[in-house]
Structure prediction request, 339 residues.
Amino acid sequence: MSTHLSVVELLELAGNGDRGAWRELVERHHRLVWKVALSHRLNDADAADVSQATWLILAEKLGTIRRPDRLAAWLTTTARRESLRVLAMRRREVQPSWDDVEPGESDPTVPAPEDSAVRGDRDRLLWTAFATLPEQCRKVLGLLAYEPDLTLVEIGRAVGLSPASITKTRTRCLTTLHRRVLSLGIGREAAG
Amino acid sequence: MTYFSDADRALLAELGDLLDRGDPVPEHVTAAAVAAGELIDAHWDWEWLDRLADVRPVRASGARAHSFTGRASIDVEATGIAKVRLAGLVTSAERFSSVEVCWPAGSTSVAVDSCGRFDVADLPNGPVRLLLRRPGLPVATTGWFVP
Prediction:
């Protein structure tokens, strides 16, 4: 199928009516769009609206995307803009949370993974380490996990941080995740 | 480009896989994204009405305001969540007798009165667009927006 093609090639094929190419574009990016919407604390119904609006806009602007090689960034920006519009309409405010959550504390905004998703100790450990990170870290790493090649400016825009802050945040979050995975692993080995 | 060490990239890939399994995108959300592909290049000859920045605050009544401008201007206020009502005003040198409200799975046409007002209720939630048609002229349309 189209799985070996680049995003640029897929966009061109999709623009010429290749539905398989469009499905492949969705397959590669729908997690990112969903994650951007959720990172704005939208509920599932609003996040679904944002996702649908983002893909509808892409379908109709397909021929006018100036940097097809930066589709992930375009989707991130569009989903962010639509998320902010919906947020404004819902009269909610985005409250950036810089307060670190101590390891071990559970955060009610982090969904518990479905049991079937956690395949072993390593998954449990990584999930626990991730779930106990500050919310801003989870947003940043959640986006990077799907699109590691987003630029710092693009990630900053998506989560509402300045380029200066995002540089520090990204480094701090990744370092903290590495450290928590390590310390949790060592703790379990010691306990075991 | 962002810079990551191999260890960073490996950890992020592992995290992406885990998030994917633990917090998956709902199937209907993915299906809607796939279905959006049906609109590719379908309306290349339409005239677009630009969306004005959301400068107006949400009114105390709970209505959500949206404004578009171009060959015609449309100001619309939306109320309701599960079932949406749109009440608006079309301002244009040309007379439009109706506005077509489209959502991904359907559409409805609503009359515009002599003052340019229109009002339509019981719309499904989710993105919509508004279309203005007049014989002999290109269709003028808003982009998709969540009302």
In short: Chain B touches chain A through 48 residues (CB under 8 Å). The helical segments of chain B are 6-22, 27-36. The first strand of chain B starts at residue 47 and ends at 51. Residues 43-142 of chain B form a domain with the Immunoglobulin-like fold (CATH 2.60.40).
